[in-house]
Amino acid sequence: MDKLKIKISEQAYNKILNILKNDDQFDCVKFSMESSCCNPKVGIYLDDLNNISNEDKKDTIEDLNIIYPKALTEKVKEVQLVYRNSGFMIKSIPLKESTGCSGKSGSNSGCSGCSSKGSGCSGCHH
Fold first, then answer.
1. pLDDT for 75-101, tens place per residue?
2. CATH architecture assigned to 5-94
C-alpha cells in the first residue's frame, strides 16, 4: 500500500490546528508505529516538518500536515483520529487481521505478550 488512509474528526482536526497555531515549535503531527503483541499500535505526537526523513511520508488534510513512517503503510491500512473526553483517541485498522499472539486466530487465543489492564488482552483483537 502506498498511502495511508487517514480519517480525522472535525473536533480533533480543529483541536490540533489550534494547538499548532499556539505553539511555534511544531507545525505538524506525526504518527508513529509501536510494536504490539498482535496488531501494530499507532501513536501521535507534535513534530516539525523540518524533521522529516527519507523514511517518512507527508500527507495533508486541508491545513493540517501529517507525517508518518513509510513502514506504517506495510502494516496499517487506515488510521482514525477523534477527540473525546478532553483527549485524542487513535485507532489503527491493520492490513491483515491479526492471528493472535499465540498464532491461533480468534478472540480467545492467548495473548501472553500483552501488557493488559486487568484480565484478558483488550488491545489484541478488533
1. 999 999 999 999 999 999 998 865 555
2. Sandwich (2.60)
DSSP 123: T
Mean pLDDT of 36-60: 89
- Residue 45 neighbours by CB distance under 10 Å: 9
**Residues 32-37, mean pLDDT to the nearest whole number:** 78
β-strand 28-34 against 41-47: which pairing, if any?
antiparallel
Domain boundaries defined on the chain: 5-94, 97-126
User: 33 CB contacts (<8 Å, ≥6 apart)?
Assistant: 40, 41, 42, 43, 68, 69, 71, 72, 75, 76
What would the DSSP string read from start to end of 7-28? EE-HHHHHHHHHHHHT-TT--E
C-alpha cell at 93: 485498522
